Amino acid sequence: MAETTVVTPLASTHAPLAGPGAPGLRRSPAAQLADAFAAATAATAADAARAVAVREVPFLPQLGLRAVAGSAGAAALESALGVSLPSGHGNTTSGGGFTVLWIGPDEFLAVGDEGGAATSDRGPAEAARVGAALGEVGARTPGAVVDLSANRTTFELTGPSARTVLEKGVSFDLHPRHFAVGQAIATVLDHVPVLVWKTGEDAYRILPRASFADHVGRWLIDAMREFAVRELTAPGAR
């Protein structure tokens, strides 16, 4: 069977938001939950040993990458990104303003670092820049780059109870002896496909597709209720 090579165009057909009113038109997939996230976080804050915080980290640039490990295409993408591609399941690599998550043997997701203007739309420009490393039309190196920034949003869960919250809906073993800082896996949270990325000892990022953002966000809020601190207003009050 002949090999099929998928390549990316050198320029995006979707121009980034522009104009003085454009930034105000952009709305994150879970913007409607911002107040609920703040309330859920505040409800657990009084007990530092059991606290957990949740927030959305919107508009991170995300690039879908395809290249066979060790190939010229992989080398070209690594050079453009400024970071090597991870070598196996669960692994990530960081550099050049991106963290690259391993999705499959020849599939990766490069997630941009948090920072810059929250309303900026860097994805198309970054996809075009990295994709250009594959060469000119008619003489491209096998590989692919596509802007996936609008495909997923990112939730961040932090605090001593963060792992316990996730364990209510994730069957994958999240214990530190099995899931180390810096690792990321594709799994299911309450029947929803997500990426779970451990960014610190008590810090996780959960990446659902944008269409599931409201459901996953509300699930996290509900799972945090166990750790809410309720003040007793009188002796014997419940």
UniProtKB/TrEMBL annotation:
One of its GO terms (molecular function) is sarcosine oxidase activity. Residues 1-11 have a biased composition (Polar residues). GO terms for biological process: sarcosine catabolic process. Gene3D superfamilies: Heterotetrameric sarcosine oxidase, Probable tRNA modification gtpase trme, domain 1. Residues 1-24 are annotated as: Disordered. It comes from the Bacteria. NCBIfam families: soxG (TIGR01375). This is Sarcosine oxidase subunit gamma.
